[in-house]
UniProtKB/TrEMBL annotation:
GO terms of biological process kind: tricarboxylic acid cycle
Entry protein name: Probable malate:quinone oxidoreductase
EC code: 1.1.5.4
Alphabetized Pfam families for the sequence: Mqo
Length: 500
């Protein structure tokens, strides 16, 4: 007897692939802007935010460029490039405004479950690094959103800010630090799951777990056929969608290739894995209250910038150090070892080889990281916590990232360490590639995507008015408007229950 498999067919205005912070943010923005939209969300795992958005998998939470030194590189002439830091801090303020709107309107409850006040610090030692940090501080003081940053070379003052990093520190090495009390810790796993819980209460929104998108094909009328398989039952589904967003973290590249849009040609990916040292000593955890970032090793990817990091995870205070980088051919923590091989195509072989040749220091760095011993990891930790003891720390696996490789204007490959939005020219499909700073700037990234893919709707008075309601600074620079910046920071801080 022959059995036939029935394919369930449906239609949607929007299909979101991946149940992470990006899909959650885009889905909620679009639903607020146009409540009658029908949205279908597909996630291959059995829970939301289990990959890059999860707190244990995220290498940095609450990125606002206050302490991340890789966002302010020193140029060849000795000056500090502040452009990326300024862009990121503006973007993080947009995220705060959107979250505050959601809390104020009752769409999200208990903001303390996903955001907490925590100072952001940079810490360096040695004459050269101290000079760099002072130049960085001076350069950032030109911008209002960094005005509250403090700088010191006084070891006693640094000990007040973060006692553990100074205890047991010997020798005459010069030290310096900056501190921004306005920093926050954000649990993007908790935030993402809260947003999806709300979205599921709305008419026209369906969230499907254990569903894997297998194929994407564009119809002649500009809509998309999305083929999906329910992993537990094997049931096949086919959704016709007007707009598709691929926000599948490391898995986005493979889906972009399946979409086969001209704009996606030449893109490749370089996977980077990570690990944490997690503190198990409650006394040490209680004693440290800051995110302290240092300088990355030569060739290190941004997700590997060393930091000793106070976090709130599942309602409990945690202390992490790392992440230690590594290499895996997986594109997702729950991916396949064949992901890298499957991503290689004729159109991206040359860019990937070119990026590999021009990033020999990165390759060397990752090889060294892979072969690190526990003693090597402890030596790195002791640079930040001189009195650290091996018995107080355990090794935990962190997340998986895929750094973007793309063609430059000469057709050669370059490795990008930020996020990249790729969209079809008609706006019917968009893909988010890359990693840092990612989650912290999700709202700005998704607003940019909406500007590319929903141009006509965005120009309407209704959408413009709603965006200004959700994000009071929409269309304005907070660095250029100190009074507005102060008002918004105070208001969002009160709504989100943050310390002023």
């Amino acid at each position: 007897m022959t059995t036939t498999t029935t394919t369930h067919k449906s239609e949607a205005d929007v299909v979101l692939i991946g149940a992470g912070i990006m899909s959650a943010t885009l889905g909620l923005l679009l639903k607020e802007l146009q409540p009658n939209l029908k949205i279908e969300i597909f996630e291959r795992l059995d829970v939301a935010a289990a990959e890059s958005s999860d707190a244990w998998n995220n290498a940095g939470t609450g990125h606002a460029a206050f302490c991340e030194l890789n966002y302010t590189p020193e140029k060849s002439d000795g000056t500090i490039d502040t452009s990326k830091a300024v862009k990121i801090v503006e973007a993080f303020e947009v995220s705060r405004q959107f979250w505050a709107y959601l809390v104020e309107k009752g769409l999200l409850n208990n903001p303390e479950n996903f955001i907490k006040s925590i100072p952001h610090m940079s810490f360096v030692w040695g004459e050269k690094n101290t000079k760099y940090l002072k130049k960085r501080y001076d350069a950032l003081q030109q911008f209002h959103l960094f005005k509250e940053m403090e700088y010191t070379e006084d070891a006693g003052r640094i000990k007040e800010w973060a006692p553990l990093i100074m205890e047991g520190r010997k020798g005459a090495k010069k030290v310096a630090a900056t501190s921004m009390r306005f920093g926050t810790d954000v649990n993007f796993g908790a935030l993402t799951r809260s947003i999806f819980r709300y979205l599921e209460t709305l008419d026209g929104v369906n969230l499907h777990f254990n569903h894997e998108v297998r194929k994407l094909k564009k119809y002649d009328d500009g809509t998309w056929r999305v083929k999906v398989k329910e992993l537990e039952s094997g049931t096949k589904k086919r959704v016709k969608a007007k707009f598709v967003f691929i926000g599948a973290g490391g898995g986005s590249l493979l889906l972009l290739e399946k979409a086969n849009i001209p704009e996606g040609e030449g893109f490749g990916g370089f996977p980077v894995s990570g690990q944490w040292l997690k503190c198990t000593n409650e006394a040490l955890i209680a004693k440290h209250q800051a995110k302290v970032y240092g300088k990355a090793a030569v060739g290190a990817p941004p997700m590997s910038v060393p930091h000793i990091d106070t976090r709130m995870i599942d309602g409990k205070k945690a202390l992490l150090f790392g992440p230690y980088a590594g290499f895996s051919t997986k594109f997702l923590k729950n991916g396949s070892y064949f992901d890298l091989a499957k991503s290689i195509q004729l159109d991206n072989i040359k860019p990937m080889l070119g990026a590999g040749i021009s990033n020999i220091p990165l390759t060397k760095y990752l090889i060294e990281q892979v072969f690190q011993s526990s003693e090597d990891r402890m030596r790195a930790l002791k640079e930040y916590l001189p009195n650290a003891k091996k018995e107080d720390w355990v090794l935990e696996n962190a997340g998986q990232r895929v750094q973007v490789i793309k063609k430059d204007k000469n057709g050669k490959g370059i490795l990008e360490f930020g996020t990249e939005v790729v969209n079809a020219s008609d706006g019917s499909l968009a893909v988010l590639l890359g990693a840092s700073p990612g989650a912290s700037t999700a709202v700005s990234i998704m607003l940019d995507l909406i500007g590319r893919c929903f141009k006509e709707e965005l120009a309407s008075p209704e959408w413009q008015a709603k965006l200004k309601e959700m994000i009071p600074s929409y269309g304005q620079s907070l660095n250029a408007n100190p009074q507005l910046a102060n008002e918004i920071r105070h208001k969002t801080g009160v709504i989100l229950k943050l310390k002023d």
